Amino acid sequence: MLKDKVVLITGASQGLGRALALAYAKEGASIVVNARREEALRPVVEEIEGSGAEVLAVAADVSESVDVERLVDAAVEQFGRVDVLVNNAGLLGPRVAIEEYPEGEWRRVIDANLTGIFLVSKAAIPHIPQGGSIINVVSGVSVEGRAEWGAYSVSKFGVEGLNQILAAELEERGVRVNAVDPGGMRTDMRASAYPEEDPMTKITPEENTEVFLYLASDDSRDVTGERFKAQDFRKA
User: Fold this and answer.
1) pLDDT tens, 214-236?
2) CB under 8 Å to 77, separation ≥6 — which residues?
3) 90 burial type by CB count under 10 A (0-12 exposed, 13-18 middle, 19+ buried)
4) Which position among 24, 152, 194, 214 bears the catalytic label?
5) Is 101 a catalytic residue?
6) Rounded mean pLDDT of the chain?
7) Could you count the other beta carbons within 10 Å of the beta carbon of residue 225?
């Protein structure tokens, strides 16, 4: 399905990012995996290599422009282009009311979740060919503000808007841009957000890759500016 495609995934050391890296590799893509720490990427790199796919690991902080430029430059130097960009990296931040929210944490979450997507997309776009795809990970709290979701919710609201802007700007170039809400999954971030929840009631990230595979493939070539709920897509 993805043979000869180059996929760059941010936040790929664990959870959904890791599951997507492995799923894309299984479909024949070459993979660029990113996380903030190099050692965190080693296990997923070994798994991808074990599947026979080509992989490049780049440790970089997506909220820092110098790091982002190094990430994209390394991907292009190795593979020549980026066919698919998955903007997945993100931070939850504290679950407290706005009046109690630490300013430093607010800036850190906004920088990682929203500014990071801006920086990575901006750097990657010149290297995305016609027929390419950008997939932005959003959330159930990016369309409905909820108490004590603070900067995470606000940042994801921003990603929804950025997704629409990118889709409009890149349509004539034949690059599609779509958003995906993965829904609740059995991840560390979900456990932090809902400590009282039984994680076994949620699906694993590995069970939630179908819509991401579709949006990376040529089957979605004419689909842009849309928002998908991953778990509804699974059931379709």
Assistant:
1) 999 999 999 999 999 999 996 65
2) none
3) buried
4) 152
5) no
6) 96
7) 16
Do residues 64 and 36 lie in contact, with contact meaning Cβ atoms separated by under 8 Å?
Answer: no
Q: Convert the pLDDT of each residue in 146-155 to its tens digit.
A: 999 999 999 9
Tell me the C-alpha distance between 55 and 31, whole Å: 5
- What is the amino acid identity at position 203? I
Digit-coded pLDDT (tens) for 75-100: 999 999 999 999 999 999 999 999 99
Phi and psi at 227, nearest 5°, equal -125, 125
Q: Which residue has the higher pLDDT, 190 or 68?
A: 68
User: Which pTM was predicted?
Assistant: 0.95
* The amino acid at 3: K
DSSP conformation letters of the chain: --TT-EEEESS-SSHHHHHHHHHHHHTT-EEEEEES-HHHHHHHHHHHHHTT--EEEEE--TTSHHHHHHHHHHHHHHHS--SEEEE----------GGG--HHHHHHHHIIIIIHHHHHHHHHGGGPPTT-EEEEE--GGGSS--TT-HHHHHHHHHHHHHHHHHHHHHGGGT-EEEEEE--SBSSHHHHHH-TTS-GGGSB-GGGS-HHHHHHHSGGGTT--S-EEEHHHHHH-
Which one, of 67, 83, 66, 103, lies nearest residue 32 by Cα? 83
134 φ/ψ angles, rounded to the nearest 5 degrees = -115, 130
- Choose among 216, 212, 87, 83: nearest CA to 142: 87
Residue 186 vs residue 68, higher pLDDT? 68
What CATH number does the domain located at 6-235 have? 3.40.50.720
Q: Six-digit token pair at 197?
A: 């929840």
